[in-house]
Please model this.
Amino acid sequence: MSVYNFHNPTFRGPDGQEDMPWLLTPGPLTTSRTVKLAALADWGARDIEFTALIADIRKTLLALAGCDETYECVLLQGPGTYAMEAALGAFAPRKRKKTLVVSNGVYGERAAAIVNRLNRPLEHLAKPDLRAISATEVAATLDADKLATHVWAVHVETTTGIVNPITDMAHEAKTRGRVFMVDAMASFGAFPIDMVQQGIDVLVSTSNKCLEGLPGFAFVLAKRELLMQSQGESHSLALDLYEQWQGFENKGQFRFTPPTHVIVAFRQALRELQEEGGPTARLDRYTRNANVLLRGLIGLGLQPLQETGNSGPIIQTFLQPSDSAFSFAAFYQALRQRGFAIYPGALTKKPSFRIGTIGRLDENVMRQVVAAIAEILKDMGVKNMSPEK
Model:
């Protein structure tokens, strides 16, 4: 089967996505035409206009997260993992005290790997990737280990789409006087977040995913007091969160060359989030997308990893059919030819695939995905949709 031809002028994707397939992934994802167009102009990294734009973005992100005057926003070049490492390099204790990393998927495991690589003390609460982690489990771990003074949790684990109860986790952490840090890569911009009300001290996220910008930079929202205490703590020159913050405070600029086009496009993405009605309206759209996808593929006989209602609205994981006629490689290529790009599963024990329901997508796109999958499975001769046991 031939590979999808991105440059075929006769190809017409659904609903105006003529040049590239719909990205049904957890990010990078499909963005609006206006966000793409905003990236076409060249900006000087040290120009007055760009400095003002950076200040506006920092202010907007703080407001979006429900921060008060005690919080700061630090932008970082690179993907979300860079923000994770910068934040952990700044805030994870070096001696005597520990960082408790709560994980039920790849991204929690990545945070634990970063703490280990930094050679910082680690307490790891690792649970299976088939369910959310309860706040009770976090509380019990903190009660058993008084040295675990900092907690790191993933809000939406994009391995599976599971949504972890960060508000309840934060309550248990703050009740016990701990610092609470959140990986909100796949939730910020859709799930309403109020860092003050929820008791979140540190939050990391990225320019793409639910904010629907272009990939290329990430950011850390943190208590100013914690940032001040982090001076000299970082293991890295480029990822030194305190020094990056000081660059913005003193000059209003990145210390090193920023992705100017991506940042300008991000300002447009933030405007479009506001025009849509904010995170609540965006979450409603993503939820409708997920419901259409789930109903359609369950109707075809495919089995989702999570029970309906437990998978969250960001990405859906489906178990591969055990039918010998099914081949994920062929399935993937056939979807690409029809204008849809998906991700393979990230599970180690069960063959699966993932379909994202975020980005500039709507229910109409989801219905077309379901129809395409139905056609492909029929063409492949797949009759038994039951997964491997």
